Every structure is written in structure tokens, then in C-alpha cells.
Automatic annotation (TrEMBL):
Its cofactor is Mg(2+); Mn(2+). It comes from Cohnella cholangitidis. It comes from the Bacteria. Mg(2+) binds at N257, D266. ATP binds at G94, G96, R97, K117, D129, G130, R180, R187, D266. The lineage of its organism: Bacteria, Bacillati, Bacillota, Bacilli, Bacillales. HAMAP family: SelO. This is Protein nucleotidyltransferase YdiU. The active site is at D256 (proton acceptor).
Amino acid sequence: MTDNKAITETGWNFDNSYARLPETFYTKLNPTPVRSPKLIIANSPLATSLGLNVQALINNDNVAVFAGNRIPEGASPLAQAYAGHQFGYFNMLGDGRAILLGEQITPQGERFDIQLKGSGITPYSRRGDGRAALGPMLREYIISEAMHALGIPTTRSLAVVTTGQPIQRETEQPGAILTRVAASHIRVGTFQYAAQFGKLEELKALADYTLQRHYPEVETNESRYLDFLREVIRRQASLIAKWQLVGFIHGVMNTDNMALSGETIDYGPCAFMDAYDPATVFSSIDTHGRYAYGNQPRIAAWNLARFAETLLPLLHDDEERAIKLAEDALGNFAEVYQRNWLEGMRGKLGIFNEEPQDESLVNDLLGMMQKQGADYTNTFRGLTFGTPENNPLYGSGEFVQWYELWQARLTRQQETKESSHQLMRSSNPSVIPRNHRVEEALEAATIRDDYGVMERLVDVLRNPFAHIPEQLEYCALPEHSNRPYRTYCGT
């Protein structure tokens, strides 16, 4: 695999600081070449922000990079080792179908992982084929771009290529590789791996590296490992609150799917909620609702407790003292999460100041929405634009009473009615990746080789707060079905 002028002109500027960690954390390995790669979609805005030349990026030589057929200069490919609790059970895991090429250093000096997902078998494949199907890779592209546009920290998708090689899942499907961009791929599960299988000095090396990469503001503190824990808790509390505020359901909140950067990672059986119900589950494998919408804050706290356990040897030499420090830090999660969530809910209702009754005002609305099966996104959109008559809540005495209380609440703040309206416009999206729209796009792409449906959807999702007429058709609800919507992990 040789480099060439076309690849250099693209603007790749690789390093791989992760490869300077102890070798227990990875296996150096090149992607497995594919037969006939074809570029399906490239993310021009993301490419530009990374310092890449978009036109050079899409020529055949650079498409070979996205396929793993060529390795750019400076890249040092590897598969990462990690462990994790999957549905509550601990397992040795690792990159079973992904290769980290390295880290792109942007013109601004920022560092982003460039990972190929679906790039072949690794030592961590656990009897898997190391490949990915086109549908799930396009789903990740769509959802991750929607999350970014919604202002939610997330990994992003730079490109998707087909491989020319079919793979077998429930049926034969076209193979694909997604190029994922992340602040890093360090997970709670990475620390669980270090604590379970590594030496203390290796755990410390991983912690110091993560501090330097993601939390440099505390890396020189005497209490840096405790501050590290506190900062991870703070970021996760903020992230999960943002998920809840838009009705996003991750689907597989295993500890290996919690990134220490605070980004949303690993879009498998994820989806957005239509009718409001905290018990909503979309994942086909979550048969007991462990990762239901309403459970996500609790599961995040559980995952963070597993992370805190890995840091105990670094928090204090005395185990009891270390446990007490960790418990005190973890005890703040619920308060920080609730504060973030309630602040976001105030924004969705146009409220700037704080009153003790605000939480009950929000919960009363959510309770009515649940009883009536009201659409989550469209309910808040209707309140934003004064069109609650489009909602099943409208007309009930309970809603009329609530509406009057809400309007009275808005008068008890200094900001104008127009300011409240603008706050609601910027807090309540018109469009989300509706499940039926995502499926429509994936079906067109995978069955009819028509990518126009997906491209139009992605364009609409990139401006969720525009509130323009062109978005109206994407606000429409799906036709009623007696069958629950289910998503699949794609492995």
C-alpha cells in the first residue's frame, strides 16, 4: 500500500498518539483491502473543518483510503482493545470490525481520530466477519449528522464507501465501510480493560493520556484523577440531558459505548421517539427495556460508577478513602443531570428565569403527552408556533388549565414575549430523523441504489431549527402501525 501525490494533496496530516501508549491497549494492524470500493457519500462541511481538500478527497486514490486499500502517510493503523459491560454482563471486547488509522491534526491544531468501521477481521472480532452492511453505515451517517446539527456532542461520519463484496446477515447485503471522526475512541470500557487485564502503571498511563487529550485544564492538579472523574461525570450529565431533550434513544448504552470525551458514540439500534413514552425501546435485542428512553439517565450513572471503580487505585492509596471520594463524586451526577435537563426544558417552554414550580409544570405536560400518545417533537413545535390544535392534547380541560398556568408563568419574567418565542425556536427542532424517513432513505439506497432520498433528508436535518416551509413534509408522522418499530445493531 503506497502513498501518492493525490493523497498528500488531500490535506491528510496524521499522527497517532494512541500508538505511543503501552502495546497492551492495541494491536497494530492494517485494514483488509476490498475488491472494488465506490464512494457513496462524502461529508464536505466536515472535511473542510478537518483541513481536507474536498475535491481531492473524492478522487479514486483517496476513495481507496476510505476503503482501507491505501494507508496515508503518517497513519499508524491499529485496532483498540477494550472491555465492557454489555446489558450488565462484563466481557472482553475490542475493535472487532474497526481500524483506527490515526489522528488528523487540523490547521487549528485540533486532533481527531479517523477510524474505518467495517474494515475487516481483527484479533478482537470474536467470531465476527469484521465487516459492516451498507444500511447500518448509512444510518450512522444520517443520525450522527442530525445529532451534530442539534448541538449534541457526537462522533461524525466523513464518508461511506461500498466494498463490492456482499456480506451475510439475516439476508445477503451490500458491504460498506464508514469513516468515523471522533474526539477519541477512549471509552469507559477502555479503562475497564486496563483495570481488569493491565498493570497499575498501564492504567495510570491511560489516565494521564486521556487527561492530556481531553481534560488539560485539570491534568496538572494534585487531585487530577478525582477531577478527571468529576469532569467525565459533568460531561455525561450534560450529554444525556441533551439526548432526553430531543427524544433520542441510544439503544445500547453498554459501558464500551460511553466515550470519555463526552461525545455520543456507536450508533447501532438508535432512533428518535415519536409518541412520548418513557418506556420506549427500539433495539431488537433490548427485550427487557434496560436501555429504554426513561432509563438512560440511570444507566449513565451506573456506567459512571463502573468507570469510577477503575480509578480507585489512582484516587487514593487507602481503598476506603478512594471509595468515599468516588461515591461523593458520583453522588453529584443526578443533581447535575437534573439541572441540565430542567434548564433545557425551560428553554423549550420559553422560560428564562427559575421558579420552584417549573419542574412540576414540565412534568404535568409530559404526563398529559404520555396519556394522549402525543408526539414529542411536534408537541413542543406546536407550542412554539401557537398551533396546539394539531396535537391530541388540545381541547382537554387538563391541557387548557396547564396552558393557562404556562402563559401566566411567562409573564413572571423580564424578557419579552418575542424573546421567549426566539428561545423556543432555538430549543425546539422542527425536524428530527423520523424513523420512517430514515427507513425510506435506507430502503431507497440499499434496494434501488437511489441515494437522492438520503441526500435530501440529510440536507433537511442539517438545519433543524430553521422552521421553514420546506421542512413541513419531514414533520409529518408515520402512518399508524400495530407493529412496534425495531432497529438492529448490524453486526
